[in-house]
Write a structure and sequence with these properties.
six-stranded mixed beta sheet; alpha+beta; ATP-binding; ATP binding; single chain; Substrate Binding Domain Of DNAk, Chain A, domain 1; chaperone; 30 strands; Actin, Chain A, domain 4; five-stranded mixed beta sheet
């Protein structure tokens, strides 16, 4: 039982992807998405404007929430409700006062970083504020909507929800930052399958289509390939040293084809808080100072709309200067109706930021030092991030590497990380056939407790470590993590930050249930694959180490030996091993974890934020439904206006509607147009739908007349064919039943023949249906013929009724045709003879090929016993019917005439 539990736990611990998964590379300025789903191309998800990069911003235009490019453009009109660059504020309590934030964040009384929301929408409170985590949750909702639109674009009946994500984060992110991202995902009901480093995502994308040297992990022979992933984004620059290699292992000793596993091992990381936004801020200051010097308007520094315009122009100029030496500047009505025009050169910008150039090369040196490798071991430096396109940054990289020889631009500088994360998600899934991957990530800063290193920088994320303590009634342990910024200035004396406190209580009480010698408190800590530190368990155990074989050795011995005696012995040893864990060997302890430093969201804060998010989502859903109802009503009115026009090309409404009906519809249509012009902006969804329903109720009878006029001739013809075929079947089956009964009465006892294929009750059902249909159609056809020339009259016979009756009759006949022939009864025992008499019956019991009565023969005049007179002449040599055969009427024969009906006039009821 214990072995079964162990294997089950191992199986459950592996992340398995069964549904659609969204990969998110959330950047400070841009976000990239990729969807992993069978049937969906492996590519990035486009936003509403068909852009491959989505602006990482959320804003409000009065009551409307906006994202992406629309949210970015709204900053010039609504700067107070524009919230960009949320990523660096996650898990932080230090407000940034940079000009990149139109409304800088503040610290709330309970120590939480918040953004005020001036003049909030009516569906929110009067004093609405947003935390960075809540603002990220807003954007995640938009990302999920884009992915669900793509996942449902394949024509599925229902919209497939996205509930699983794989996200990329900076490898140097601290515990509070990772926790804040996880909280934002939870607020939107998203499950984080994996949280990998951004450099790891690029490395995965790099490894997708490449092979690497083979390395043997057991004896250390072979080679590894080392690369540096250099990622310079909007707010930070990171360098990650990664080792690539492959291993080959036979799945079983008898296997001939080894399993090749690609290993991606992250060895070291370095970073600096500098990126493309620093260039933007420098340009903004240069443009603002130039405008003030030319116009003398010093108050422009405090005008948020003017600053938003300068920010947008500075970003545009930065991209131009990346490819050109100079750029023109033009901002219309920048401040106080004054236009601003100027010109700036790349040299001017580089001169203003020259002192910061070394910061762009520092992460490479720091990462190599952390990984313990030299530049000579590096095969290439893979450039990633939009900021690596800036010549100023490329110059810093060349200075650090001593040239261009190792600079590689062989991945997509914008999308490699998200595509690598999506590739990792596909590798976790069982729905795709992928090459085997093993990714190893490590903590950037070591984690210590009481001066003892618990997880070093060489530890792997996902590892567990056991700590032993002398039993005391109350134990409290604090864990610290070294500062993750591995710049050269901080390696010698890294900053340590308290991250977790664990309090174990009631130890003495637990000792009363412990019987083994030398008790110790065993605390197992876990650094999960997402980088979160937590307690796995706490127990009292014995400090005495025995040499009893472990579980793996017992299993290996159990299944490895061949002789029966050894097998029996090993079974006993395994049984002894499983029974050695007694109640006194381990006693579980109660413990409490307390997060130190930046506090996570409390339960009350999560409930409050979810309430706000739900209010926004409900408002937007209602608005979307109202706008859809309005568009449908407006489109319906314009269509109806065209149909009612005297010069309309489609004359159906004029032919099938009376003059009174057209006048009534026209009057209501004009009233609806007037009402829509006055109340469209304030009307709710239900009112708009009722307005449309009132018009549709007037049009519905006219539509019915038109559809019935078009469909009725074909429906009558199909009904005739079904009646004709069923009547022919009934006549032939009735005759064969009579012949079968006659054969039974004359057959010798040692040569019994089968009973009739159909019972009298079965044939009676067909006969009753024929009579009921004839009576029904005869009564209605008289009335239908009288109004046949007037298209404004409601139809008497509906095509649906004809189809329903014809199908029921046809299905009844087909069930009888497909019925298996009856088996003959067992022959009675008679005196055995040495000779056999061959008996050839003169008629069939219940079988023949179906022969239809000609269409021009009135079947109502054919009597059952005279059916031969109405059938075509038989050939000269009529084949003898074998015993046991019945009516063989194929479905194709029944539908032959119905498939290609001959053109004919609508018959009168007498002809039916």
């Amino acid at each position: 039982m214990r072995i079964r539990r162990i294997w089950t736990a191992l199986a459950l611990s592996l992340p398995v992807v069964r549904a659609a998964v969204l990969a998110i590379d959330y950047g400070a300025e841009f976000t990239k998405l990729s969807l992993v789903k069978p049937g969906v191309p492996f590519d990035v998800v486009l936003d509403r404007d068909s852009k491959r990069k989505i602006q990482s911003v959320v804003g409000w235009k009065r009551d409307d929430r906006v994202f992406g490019q629309e949210g970015k453009m709204a900053a010039t009109r609504f700067p107070d409700t524009h919230f960009p660059y949320i990523k660096p504020l996650l898990g932080s309590t230090s407000p940034r006062l940079d000009t990149i934030y139109p409304t800088p964040p503040t610290i709330s009384p309970d120590g939480v970083l918040i953004f005020p929301h001036p003049s909030p929408p009516s569906h929110l409170g009067d004093e609405t504020t947003w935390t960075p985590t809540a603002l990220l949750a807003h954007q995640l909702a938009y990302f999920r909507t884009l992915a669900e639109d793509l996942a449902s674009s394949g024509g599925g009946k229902s919209r497939e929800p996205i509930t699983q994500v794989i996200v990329t984060v900076p490898a140097w992110w601290t515990q509070p930052q990772r926790r804040a991202y996880r909280d934002a995902l939870e607020l939107q009901g998203l499950t984080c399958l994996a949280m990998i480093g951004e450099g790891t995502g690029v490395a995965l994308n790099y490894a997708m289509t490449r092979s690497f040297p083979t390395f043997d992990l057991e004896d250390g022979t072979g080679q590894k390939e080392y690369h540096v992933v250099y990622d310079s984004g909007a707010m930070s620059t990171t360098a990650t040293v990664v080792a690539f290699y492959q291993t080959e292992k036979l799945p079983t000793p008898k296997s001939k084809t080894p399993i090749v596993t690609t290993h991606i091992d992250v060895l070291g990381t370095g970073w600096e808080e500098i990126g493309g936004v620093m260039l933007d801020i420098t340009l903004q200051k240069m443009l603002l100072n130039d405008f003030i010097s030319k116009s003398g308007k010093k108050d422009a520094r405090d005008d948020k709309k003017a600053l938003a315009k300068i920010s947008r122009e500075a970003n545009r100029v930065k991209h131009i200067l990346s490819a050109n030496q100079e750029s023109n500047i033009a901002i219309e009505s920048l401040y106080d109706d004054i236009d601003y025009k100027s010109r700036i050169s790349r040299a001017d910008l580089e001169s203003a930021i020259s002192e910061s150039q070394s910061l762009f090369s520092t992460p490479i040196i720091s990462a190599l030092s952390s990984a313990g490798v030299t530049l000579d071991n590096i095969s290439s430096v893979i450039l990633f991030g939009g900021n690596t396109r800036v010549p100023f940054v490329q110059s810093a990289i060349r200075n650090a590497l001593g040239g261009d020889e190792k600079v590689a631009q062989n991945v997509n500088a914008d999308e490699a990380a998200v595509l690598g994360a999506a590739y990792y998600g596909a590798a976790l899934s069982r729905q795709f056939k992928m090459k085997t991957l093993e990714v190893v990530e490590r903590p950037v800063g070591e984690i210590t407790s009481g001066g003892q290193v618990v997880f070093s920088k060489s530890s792997r994320l996902g590892e567990r470590k056991s700590l032993l303590y002398t039993p005391q009634d109350d134990l409290t342990m604090e864990f610290e993590q070294a500062g993750s910024n591995l710049s050269l200035s901080k390696i010698a004396d890294p900053h340590r930050e308290a991250i977790l406190s664990v309090h174990i209580h009631d130890v003495q009480k637990a000792l009363t249930n412990f019987t083994a010698p030398q008790p110790v408190v065993n605390l197992t800590m876990r650094l999960d694959p997402r980088g979160h530190l937590s307690v796995a368990n706490a127990v009292i155990s014995s400090n005495i180490t025995t040499k009893e074989p472990g579980m793996a050795e017992a299993l290996k011995g159990l299944f490895g030996k061949k002789d029966k005696d050894s097998d029996a012995t090993n079974v006993e040893e395994l049984s002894d091993l499983l029974s050695t864990t007694t109640k006194g060997d381990k006693v579980a302890l109660r413990f409490k974890e307390t997060v130190l430093g930046v506090k996570p969201m409390t339960g009350e804060q999560k409930r409050s934020t979810m309430s706000q998010l739900s209010a926004v989502a409900s408002f937007e859903a209602a608005k979307t439904a109202r706008e859809e109802a309005r568009n449908l009503l407006e489109g319906y009115l314009y269509r109806l206006s065209g149909l009612l026009d005297d010069d309309a090309e489609n004359r159906a409404l004029h032919e099938f509607a009376t003059k009174e009906e057209r006048e009534k519809m026209g009057k209501l249509m004009r009233e609806s147009f007037e009402w829509l012009g006055e109340h469209a902006e304030r009307a709710d969804e239900m009112t708009l739908k009722l307005k449309r329903a009132a018009l549709e109720s007037l049009e519905a009878p006219i539509i019915l007349r038109y559809k019935e006029h078009t469909a009725r001739p074909r429906a009558i013809d199909d009904f005739q064919q079904a009646m004709f075929s069923a009547r022919a079947f009934f006549v032939e089956a009735h005759k064969n039943n009579s012949l079968a009964l006659e054969s039974i009465s004359t057959a010798p006892s040692d040569k019994p023949v089968p009973p009739p294929r159909y019972t009298e009750e079965e044939l009676k059902v067909v006969e009753d249906m024929l009579k009921d249909n004839e009576k029904w159609i005869d009564g209605l056809m008289v009335k239908q013929v009288k109004i046949e020339g007037d298209k404004t009259k409601d139809p008497v016979i509906l095509s649906k009724d004809l189809d329903d009756r014809g199908k029921r009759l046809q299905n009844t006949v087909l069930r009888l045709i497909n019925k298996k022939p009856s088996k003959p009864p067992k022959a009675k025992n008679t005196t055995s003879t040495t000779s056999t008499t061959s008996v050839t019956p003169t008629s069939s019991d219940n079988s023949s090929s179906a022969t239809f009565i000609p269409k021009d023969t009135p079947t109502s005049q054919v009597e059952p016993d005279k059916v031969e007179d109405a059938l075509p002449a038989e050939p000269e040599e009529t084949p003898v019917l074998l015993e046991g055969e019945g009516v063989k009427l194929e479905e194709e024969d029944l539908m032959e005439d119905a498939a290609e009906p001959e053109p004919q006039e609508v018959p009168r009821h007498e002809e039916l």
